[in-house]
Specification:
By secondary structure, the protein is an all-alpha fold. It contains 17 helices and no strands.
Length: 382
């Protein structure tokens, strides 16, 4: 835990002292170093990838019968030809994953500081260190979002295929494509809400259908711990994101049904996409209450909250004529009476504090979720 706290302090200091673009770059440079230099003990699934690195590397180029996807096997095989040390897998994948998230935030967020902190406090950084293959597929999907915004569908679909060949859940990138194009229609949000209620009731059938579409072996999760639901952590996470969604939406427009201009442009379809993808995040987190495995599925849409929430606050600050360059976590109202005044800066601070407490609770009491709380460098691993 200490290394993460030190890293966060350095990041906050950088955002206060240097240009925000450079602060974003160096923040993700720090994230990359932490992820690349971790041992196989950091991340629940990391040791598995560490061990199979040698196995895949010693195979011929015929990967038939291996449970891992084709491009992931090719990726490992290429790395193995450079070095037999599996640490190379963690180094290269960490660079690619964090660089992809860096570009995603740089190109879409209007408020780098908040996006950077949420990358940690929403546990996305830690999930990326655990679910390596899925993180690679998600990173490819995020890179392809630029093609989707420009409506270059062929390029987006090509990246979706590449993501799928790294991890079969990459097919969920098509869900992002569908939501983007359905966002042309005003009633898409209502359809999503209705679909969410139906899926909440018929969650088992939904997962069965998804498993048959993606990978039939995933049906085995129905009889595993991943099929369980109702844990307190999932409920608290759902309530947290739901409250943040309603508060930010209400504060900007007065109602969640209005068009919310989250994007850099005046493109209404893109604006509504951000709104609808936020609803999709809430739906998936609601489904996690019924079945834990939906938490993994939600990882494809959850990164968009790194854009939606910060861009919402930019609009709030503009309404109050506040420059985001002068807003940070450490510049809170020091007066006890002012700390409880409902204003834009305090709302940001309250939300950040809730996310910080959530992150600390998960890290301390549910460290088994990602297995990243007890950090160690690879040269210290026994």
């Amino acid at each position: 835990m200490l290394i993460y706290i030190v890293a966060l302090l350095l990041i906050i200091i950088m955002y206060c002292k240097i240009n925000k673009r450079w602060a974003l770059f160096f923040s993700f440079f720090i994230f990359t170093l932490i992820a690349a230099l971790r041992s196989f003990k950091v991340g629940v699934d990391t040791e598995q990838f560490y061990n199979t690195y040698q196995y895949i590397g010693n195979l011929s180029w015929n990967f038939e019968g291996i449970r891992y996807e084709l491009l992931y096997c090719v990726f490992v095989k290429i790395l193995y030809n450079f070095s037999k040390n599996p640490q190379l897998l963690l180094i290269v994948s960490s660079i690619f994953i964090n660089f992809s998230f860096y570009l995603f935030i740089k190109k879409n967020s209007k408020y780098y500081f908040l996006s950077t902190l949420l990358y940690v406090f929403m546990n996305i950084f830690f999930t990326n260190m655990n679910a390596l293959r899925e993180a690679l597929a998600i990173s490819i999907t995020l890179l392809s979002f630029e093609f989707l915004k420009k409506k270059k569908i062929f390029s987006y679909l090509l990246f979706s295929i590449i993501a799928f060949l790294f991890h079969k859940t990459g097919v969920l990138s098509l869900l992002i494509l569908i939501i983007f194009y359905l966002s042309k229609f005003k009633k898409t949000s209502l359809v999503l809400i209705a679909s969410g209620f139906i899926c909440f009731i018929m969650y088992s059938s939904l997962f069965s259908v998804l498993s048959k579409v993606i990978y039939s072996d995933y049906l085995g999760y129905l009889n595993s711990d991943f099929s369980r639901g109702g844990n307190v952590g999932a409920i608290l996470e759902f309530i947290l994101y739901l409250l943040v969604f309603f508060v930010s939406s209400y504060y900007v427009n007065g109602t969640i049904t209005k068009n919310i201009p989250y994007s850099h442009t005046d493109n209404n379809q893109l604006n509504m996409f951000y709104f609808n993808i936020s609803l999709t995040i809430i739906i998936f987190l609601g489904l996690t209450i019924r079945m834990n495995i939906f938490n993994r599925i939600s990882m494809y849409v959850l990164p968009f909250f790194l854009i939606v929430l910060p861009n919402t606050f930019v609009l709030i600050f503009k309404k109050n004529q506040i420059n985001t360059n002068h807003v940070s976590l450490i510049k809170m109202n020091t007066s006890f009476s002012k700390a409880f005044v409902i204003n834009s800066v305090n709302i940001q601070n309250y939300i950040l504090l809730v996310f910080i407490f959530y992150w600390l609770i998960v890290s301390i009491f549910r460290s088994d979720w990602s297995g990243c709380s007890n950090y160690s460098f690879f040269w210290n691993a026994i």
